[in-house]
Amino acid sequence: MNTAFITTAGETDIVDPYEVALERLDVSDPRLAIDERWKPFFKRLREEAPIHYLKNSQFGPFWSISRYDDIVAIEAKPEIFSSSWAYGGITILDMQDLDVQLRMFIAMDDPEHAQQRQTVAPAVQPTELRKHAELIRERTSSLLDGLPVGEPFDWVERVSKELTTRMLATLFDFPWDERQLLPYWSDWAANIDIGTDPVLNAEREKILFEMAAYFKKLFDERRAMPPRGDLLSMMAHSEHMSNLDEQSFLGNIALLVVGGNDTTRNSMTGLIQQINAYPEEWDKVKANHALIPTAVTEAIRLQTPIAHMRRTVVEDTEFRGHKMRKGDKVILWYRSANREEEVFADADKFDVNRANSRRHLAFGYGIHRCLGSRLAELQLTTLIEEMLKRNMEVKKISPPERIPSCFVSGYHRQMVTITRD
Question: Residue-wise over 232-246: b if at least 16 C-beta within 10 A, else e?
Fold first, then answer.
């Protein structure tokens, strides 16, 4: 870091964002995830500099876009604000110069993006979701019945991680006895915050290449078999994904593993945060099950499992009076937009009567909106329904252990106790 310009991320302790110069505010500091200390940082940006330029950071210079309407406007112009891995990809960490470039379809522009996205889209279409619904319910019901009553346990490990891992293994038709490899790989793939540490990044790259080798073996097996309904078979028998180069194969596997894991897993634990913080709202859901859909979208909005996406300016442009140059890095902070008071009144509250909860940006916006959003909602809906059937109460017995990251809003651990009928 340039010692002549030390951002707030370079301070020994986390500072009060209102007591430092605006140009030093660095919302990429992963420490801000602990206890959600990013909230006042983004509040100040939304108030004073919703389009904010930081000239130096551990990730280089970048623009921060913190307000809802500005993010939507940028997402609607992919021809100017590119997602392509060739310009750095979709995260604040530049990917093009690393050994693992993650050339996934979400890190591509059209037409390549649309071609590859359409290949795997059938796996999460309504007809397939209806097929999965019964299996999801059976697994959720069995898992909840097996939880210890009145004894402390880790909700992340026993519920959130296990339910999402089972679903992901089903989507891939992954070897069942080795399914715990999936969240392990997902955690490493999503951990971009270590990207500037050469030792940890080398370990990350090693693990991701091991993941790719494992999946390539399965992929080749599926290609030699008749087409089936799992994701690997769809890729192996498709026009646009059957002969991907190594980086593109690795990238798309990483995308499907992380996408099928992080959103649902962390929102399932985020739900526990909200029903403990707002028990009166949970009581409303118990009394009126018609409120379940809003409880789901509120849990996702408040969790915002992917905190940001990145775009790169491909031609000099002016946005809201700010001149952005070709090559500039633009970070869309979904976690900030989802807490904007002008869009979501009393935005920090879990409000199961919120009329516009579905407008949240946790799934992104535009052509890159999350492909698996309906599956995530189905899994969360089923979890709530099965909890209510059992009159289950989940009580936190300690604060959550959050993942220190500017990219993933997630949890290492959440100890709870439960009661149920």
Answer: bbbbbbbebbeebee
| Cβ-proximal residues to 222 (8 Å cutoff; 6+ apart), any chain | 228, 230, 232, 233, 236, 237
**DSSP summary character for residue 316:** -
Place of tokens 């189905």: 378
Residue, of 416 and 228, whose pLDDT is higher: 416
Nearest to 257 by CA among 191, 157, 168, 156: 168
**Cα dihedral value 349, 402, 201, 161, nearest 10:** -90
Residue 66, CA atoms < 13 Å, CB-side half-sphere? 27
What's the N-to-C CA distance of the chain in angstroms? 56
Q: What is the pTM of this model?
A: 0.92
Domains and CATH numbers, the chain: 8-419 (1.10.630.10)
Separation of alpha carbons 17 and 122, rounded Å: 45
Residue-averaged pLDDT of the chain:
91
**CA within 13 Å, CB half, 369:** 10
Distance CA 59, CA 89 (A): 13
- Which one, of 332, 371, 356, 357, lies nearest residue 77 by Cα? 332
User: Residue 72's closest CA among 311, 376, 314?
Assistant: 311
- CA of 407: how far to CAs of 93, 342, 350, 392, in Å? 10, 24, 22, 32
